[in-house]
Amino acid sequence: MSATVSRRALLAGGGALAAAATTGVAAARILPRDMVPLVGPGYRPTDKDEVGIWQRMERVEEEIAGSNLLIKDEGLNAYLRDLIGKVGGPATRDMRIYLARIPEFNAVMFPTGFSVVFSGLLLRMRNEAQLAGVIAHESAHFLRKHQIRQWRDTRTKSDLLAIGSMVAGVAGAAGGVYTGDLARLAELGAILSVLRYNRTLEAEADAMGVRLLADAGYSPAAMHITWQQLIGELDASASYRRKRRDRNYSLFSTHPAPERRMADLRISAAEVTVPGRSYDDHRARYLQAIGGIRPMLIDDQVKLNDPGASQYIVETLAQDGWNGLLRFAEAEVWRLRNRAGDDARAAYGYAAAVRYPDAPADAWRWHGIMLQKAGRAAEARAAYQRYLTVAPNAPDAPFIRQQLQFL
Amino acid sequence: MKKLAMAAALTLTLPACSTIGGEGFGYGGYALVRADRPRSVGDGSMIVTPPRDWNRVSPLWQIDDIRAVEDWTLNSPYLDSISFVTGLRGGRYIIRQDRRAAQQVPKFRSDMTAPEIAAMLESFYRVRAGAIDFKTTGLAPRQFMGYPGFQFDFDHLDSDEVWRRGRAVGAVIGGRLYLVLLDGARMHYFGAALPDFEAIANSARLRR
Fold first, then answer.
1. pTM recorded for the entire structure
2. B128: chain A residues, CB-CB within 8 Å
3. For A270-285, how does the pLDDT look when each residue is reduced to its tens digit (9 = 90+)?
4. What's the per-residue H, E or C state across chain B?
């Protein structure tokens, strides 16, 4: 990829955008080969509007960088920096990445080239290629200058005021008026609505992301698999609560229809695949990187008691093989959702979990509680004793010791 | 029970006026709870005696109908609060929620053990109070109103980046949940309110 950005490339990009804006639809799939970066190394804005946005976003970044919602694990952060280095295109060295502890399927790229990855994303990715695909997509937003292009594209007077006030809200966060409420900002869309892109720009990011992914040697098919998971999870969550999928879901925004984008990604992936070249998903390396926090990631999700989504996630991860952690998580989903018959299901789930050598200590505790409630005193006693052996300093050990006296 | 947004902070409060003294809520949305006077809380089935004046949080703006729950505060719900859950029946929730919301606080069941009640409270903090991190720091047996109950201690980091600390003391009596819960900013406020909380929890008794 070229290090400098030619004027021709800029004009071509602008032209494509103008055409799409006129017709209002992305009629045809955007081709990965057309996606040249519009940003080179060390890019700084010169236009007044963009300079203004950068100044505000720099304050936002300062706020985010100091947030105690970030996961500080140095090894994991180095791993993510390394990853953005592989799929960040020509601006690789300029990009920053922050890992926030927010249990949502999401990642955001800010106009100045820093990205926030939500911990919920790490939970859902089955391998490094999938994660790299999302990061490549986000990088493409920066490389194609989507934030400023979208802003200029939609700039009618009312939009201008709306975006101006939203950016002011973000700046307020940095100034301490709004106390850097990262999760809330993300959820409520104050930042995300500033960073919401039209369908053409999303399609561009998809196409370019696939290309960045394949160029870095990852399996480009990883991207549409991620899409499939997102759609599957949203449907599972909604159908459990007997409603339709939320159309306002923020990851990669809403238009075009998710199914259409998944189909386009599949074709693009085939297009960028070089015959004879081997692509890897680096699953082992990924599991090693996130292994230390995986129990926490699962716990954060399961305790939200969104049974449709949680069960979908557990089953998706289990496609690579069941283990004690996933069996335990499945039982937790059943226990918390608390429908008729779920107590028996959960009891069965904990019993299944403790058969695995990697079952978490908590599985023994819950196994014991379920046995005790079922009146199986001797087995409950054994499970509790096992729990106290594995986790002698557990915060609830005094309670469990008391229960042992009753058995 | 406290939530981080102001409106939401009131969603668990009691709508009906059950105060013994009959004092009203002022424009600020709080009613005075006088020190050293026994008073019934929640649905009226529990009587407590605070060692100093507290403020009962007004149900003015809430759309809730959970009579079993009542909230008090000293310095505003963001900083400290005591919640009372009184006589909550099996199958009911500690908070009113949209049945179609993707994420939900589990319902209380009469046969719940202390760890299950603790887990229910944890999900409340994660789902409704924006807790990003939640650590159980203790779960131990403790008598409550003369019945075998539990004490649950926890810390949570909320999405406003403030660490808060909580202690719940409760018991399931006759299949109903009774609970007193202190929650406050870990820096200063929790510790400052803890002696009051202990006095209130120890003063609690069932109204016969």
1. 0.85
2. none
3. 999 999 999 999 999 9
4. CCCCCHHHHCCCCCCCCCCCCCCCCCCCCEEEECCCCCEEECCCCEEECCCCCEEEECCCCCCCCCCCEEEEECCCCCCEEEEEEEEECCCCCCCCCCCCCCCCCCCCCCCCCHHHHHHHHHHHHHHHCCEEEEEEEEEEEEEECCEEEEEEEEEEEECCCCEEEEEEEEEEECCEEEEEEEEEECCCHHHHHHHHHHHHHHHCEECC
